[in-house]
Structure prediction request, 617 residues.
Amino acid sequence: MTTTALPSSLAPLAPSQSRLALAQFRLEQRSFWRNRQAAAFSFGMPIMIVLLLGGLFQDNGTVGVGGAQFKSYFVAGMVGVALMSATFVNLAITLAFQRDLLVLKRFRGSPLGPVPLFAGKVLNGIVVGLIEVGLILAIGRAAYDTPLPQNPLPFALAVLVGTAVCSMGGVAITAFIANADSAPAVVNLPYLALQFVSGVFFAFHDMVKPLRFVGDVFPLRWLIEALRASYLGFDYIHTHQIAVQQLTSHDGRTLVPIIVHRPAPVPVHGVHAVTSVGVAYLVLAGWFAVCTLVAIRRFRWEPRPD
Amino acid sequence: MGTAIDVEGLRKSYGTFEAVRGVSFRVAAGESVAMLGPNGAGKSTTVEILEGYRRPTSGAVTVLGHDPMRGGVELRQRIGIVLQEAGFPPELTVVELVDAWRRYFADPMDTDEAVAAVGLEDRRKVRAKSLSGGEHRRLDLALALVGRPELLFLDEPTTGFDPSARRIAWDLIDGLVGRGMTLFLTTHYLDEAQRLADRILIVNEGRIVAKGTPDEIGGRGHAPGTVSFAMPVGLAAGDLPLLPTGAGLDVVDGVVRVTAIDLVRVSHVVTSWAIERGVDLAGFRVARPSLEDIYLAIIGDGAIADEGVPA
Prediction:
């Protein structure tokens, strides 16, 4: 071919990974918004829930004694749900479909390479997620008078980490999806179940112990913890720890705290607040590592042979 | 000329089933080679190993100097792949997909050039999900060609094409091979192999059972052919000229059929005789054994009967 005849300094260069990732991101964006049904589900669902339940929770009073309003507590939780929907759900279903349609196989035979391919897909999830978070915060503020994030930088960090963990989770779970038909079912199970055990619709520390235990194992509860702490201000931690203390005395018994390193019925200082968010990031990092490992070892580019 | 593909003792098993059972061949740079065989002969498995999709169970495979599993971007920049079956992101249009693909390569064709080359100019803005089967296949070809590959893999490329689309695709591929591209294709269409390939490998049950040029394969160059014509009115077998030794003669329903290796000599004898006698040889025809005759003789009639509907 002509390229071999050129001196190497004149030979055209293959495009860089970052340019490829950006080009892939643009393709993913187009695909995402053009598939109205999928966009409506993964994008519109969390917004709809905020609109509907926000109204329901508007007069639910406060969580604990710190004065955090339940509707604000709920909006922070929905930010976590929206991130999971935009990244985890969206990515896993898209990948399962593209695997079945042999689109992934086609990409694999091209010079695109897996890194720009996945970078483009994850970037798409992040952008969709950020738009959703913006809309949820705006709707909360406009319709239900909920606050904007009190500590914007830690909030942004939590959003970023959340998209990273949920994206990797979305790639990892495709290893357990048999085919495109079963993808929505497989993906919605953790998506819906985790919403209920992670303290989105109910105050986490008011839930029964087994549910709290399940919630503690999975990353959504911790993502929401990090989001909520920065959204409400660190005083929120103060609030819910006092809440736990109250529950304890109300019962007449001392509840064994689920998270051992956070003894509940103690006077609360800033240190505890930081620790709680720190634990959240540790758990999220652990999940990120596990999901990365599963994604690398178990990811399939082609459908399972019959 | 360098070697584009080198395959030595290739075997591939899926569980207890051995799809490829010791295949060796070489494709020179600039050459076009067709792997011809019935479904399940191991064609797709072989080509997917060459494309880097499958790991051989044993044997050595080199493509443009690389192990195809490890060649990475460097190798993929230089090859084009038309898979037997592959999808597109359904919501993207023809032009968007070609344009996306051209960005992966160092020295690609223009988007319009690639779209026009496969005859999809009128379908530029159509989303992939709305393309017909034939159009889908042509877009496959556009994506495989847009990077100006040195080596093109085609796995049953024109299955589902109408005859004119087929001719367009063949002319396009033939032109590229003429300009130095190497081609490796699998097909179960004999005419496709004959039209596109310098050399044919016939495979059956995971083994190469015959190889050679389309004209020579399976002893086709030396196999007896036939000279046939209608017996002129008023003449009988006894009036025919003396045929060269070794030529067989039969006359059935007024059709004379001479079977011989040296068809030139037989033709000469027959036509000279006709001119001398002043008779017309209606339906005069000289025929070499067709590739199909050879193929059927090698594979067996049962194999081609299964071929009716492409998978």
User: Anything to note?
Assistant: Confidence is low (pLDDT under 50) at residues 302-311 of chain B. Chain B has two domains: 3-219, 225-287. Chain B touches chain A at residues 14, 51-53, 72-73, 76-78, 81, 83, 85-92, 96, 100-101, 103-107, 127, 143, 147-148, 150, 180 (CB under 8 Å). Chain B has ten helices and 13 strands.
